[in-house]
Amino acid sequence: MFWIFIQKELKAIIQSPKFILYFITITVLILLSFYFGIKEFRAYERDYETAINLMEERNKSVDSWVKIVYMAYRAPNPMQIFSSGIGYDLGRYSKINQYNTITLENSLFTDNPIFAVFRFIDFTFIVTVILSLFAILFTFDSVNGEKEQGTMKLIFSNPVSRSQYIRGKFVGTFIGLVVPILIPVLFGLLMLIIFNVPLTFSDWMKILLILSASVLYLAFFIALGIFISTITHFSSTSFLISLVFWITTIFILPRLGIMTAGQLLKVPSDAEIESQKDAIGIQVGSEESDSIRIAYKNYFERTRDLSEDERKNKRSEVLKEVEQIQQSGLNKMNVLFEKIIESAQNKKNQVIVLGLTMSRFSPASAYQLAAMTSCASDVYLKNRTEEQMKSFKQKYTEFIQKKLTEKGGALAYYQSVMDGVTRKNTIDLADLPRYTSVAPSFGEVITTALLDITILIILTLAIFTGAYFSFLKYDLR
Amino acid sequence: MLKLIIEKEIRDIIKSSKFVYMFAICAVLIILTFYVGGKNYLINRAQYEAAIAENNKTFEKMVASGQIEPNIILPPEPIMSLVAGVSNDVGRDIQITTAGNLTATGSKYNEDPIYAVFRFLDLEFLFQMILALFAILCMYNAINGEKERGTLALTFSNSIPRHIYILAKVVGSFISMFVTLLIPILIGCLLLPLIGVPMIASDWLKLIMILLTGFLFFGLFLILSIFMSTITKQSSASLLFMLVIWISAVVVFPRVAIIIAGRAVNVPTTDEINQKKIKYTNEQSKIMLNKIRDVQSQKKDDQDEQFKIIMKEYSNNVTDYYLKISRERENIQYYQENLALNISRISPSSCFTLAVSNIAGTSLELNRDYLEQAYNYQNILRKMIDEKIKSTDITKLAMSGNTSMYNINDIPLFIYITPSFSKYIPRVIIDLSILIIMNLIFFAASFFTFLKYDLR
Asked: Is B293 in Cβ contact with A104 (below 8 Å)?
């Protein structure tokens, strides 16, 4: 009997005029999202390769390690085809040298604000907004609609179990709505292969995770539509209530959670932080200048009675002393900068944790967060990227310092330039450390996304249980 | 007769349960939007003032040590919190160097990516996503719903001209919707000064214009729903078609148009521009150093003067080159934006977004205006520095033990001037005209379709 109900539901869905419109709309939207996602990925990849090549070319032409300009770029992420998250809002590179703290600059939207006007349409957005709306449209009258049409009395004039009926309704609707989505999704995945989007095994596992979360999310809205139609007498009423719930869940709760967190916790702006850093920079710079002045004064006093050539020979000692003073000043500044940044970052993390926790009351929020985590475009992308760049910066600056020390130091180079010494290009960039961004592994992703997926499972089960028990007491007359 | 049918329409709409539900949620959302927008403005203002205070302290120390490189920040405005546009995507902080390129960094979403996860609730979002849906849900069965219920046949069993009926339906729906939505909107507007948001006359004018544009957009969906209900037999079909139109107009077309046109024009990235600048600067530095060495080797009396000329030449060459390639990129980007936006205007949602963001000053022009004012300020500072250098005896200054020739009180402050609304009127007029024309077209279409409608 259970299978009969499933077949009945499937037939009802497929034969309804709504279904053709549903199938055409989601097919077009999903394929468009894949197509434009691939195009954007390719454009980002092109820009990334051009930037890296230009930087390498420029660095090959310099004659000293002092003049190397290195920028660490975030590599293009093919998973953003599924969920762009904050990927396009975040800066794409940071300068790497011992003087600057890691600051991500120039996001795609800052560089090309035209794309910020309407933003991109991705798979996650289609599932969150469009597919959930269609799920509501197909299920708001699943029980009370049958009662209004009179078919429910007809069914229950036979010895039919209520439990089988409601379960069959849910499963039949689920199959009827989810299976058609798989067709454009499979075509979309084929497009990824045809267009040679570089995806590792771990990426494919993440894609599977996103698809599973999407299916769970749709199951929630199917169960919700059925539940609401079991607690209302008229389909027009259940339609309205479902729609109100849809608007609240998708548009209001997620935003409200984040905004409330932002209002409750005070966070210093980056401008304030930069200003504090500038003040420290001036303070330390001033102390450094005094020490350097004293060093040079002592040098001139020591070498007053020496000849020009003898004085030049003694110069390397004072240059070393000055470099040590500068290095010590730089270290002091970096320590103080790190304290300011860490304090601000801790406050920002508190806002993130509070905001995301409050927004997780909405299944739409849980789904989007799970999808973003799977695609490594979640809110922690900034922290992860900055941490990776920080550890690279340490390695890089140690390398540059070592190379400079071998050649006598930075000041020795500048002095030789002033003395008119012509240098041939002696820089061998082969050993220069290069930055590579590392995406989180599947294991890390699933650990982080587990909370959101669990929330989705619990909510779906709870709503379905509600629909189940509500229907057991439903007045069929 | 017209008045009677209008009254009937108003009563029918207001008494329906779907209207009550939808109105309740829209009212809550409208008031919430104003409240959250106002609060966001106050937070942004507090952050801005704290940053300015820090900047001023740091700038005093900078000036005392002989540097003139102030940081400027784009001030938040109340209307920007109500229609966000691209204001959270463009950089707000600029360090003013005395020569060379200026870059705005520190966009809100880059700084605090948590807000980029779900983005802000603003009037633009409200009208496009919620109120447009409200319009569809209230009017999708305006004609075919009455036919299904049998009331249409009943109405026309009296001698009622069709054109009066359809006109009354449109007018009745407009009046009932607009007047009821006005209540939460007025509450929202009153809320702003109550929570401490300082609104000046021009802000109120902009807000009124944004709301009028919003009503035009809302009206379009009202009339489109009525039109759809005259061309479909069943109300369920008209609802579905309207939802598909809503998805296409609001979600799909604007984005697709922007992406296609945006990528059709190849704009060099700022990385490419920066790399070119670094390369040119290095070449010019080498030339400058060679010239300095030549002058040094000649050991003439006017060496200092020669050094000044060489450095001035270097500075001018670098500045001119930076400006040249920056302007080239800006021109290509301007062309790209115009192409993308013109193509996207096929969608009323796009026209609405462009109109309200231009009125609020959060359109793509925001970044250009800010940079233009920053460059003007840079010129003022450079002139001041040049005059100071000419009029200061450096030797005397060094002998006196002062590290700086500048006095903080002589340095002009940067004051951001909100561009006047008249600058954007031409662009806003285009988008408003498109919305008005669309309203008229669909009204005419519903009118003429209903004249031939099968009432049985």
From this structure: no
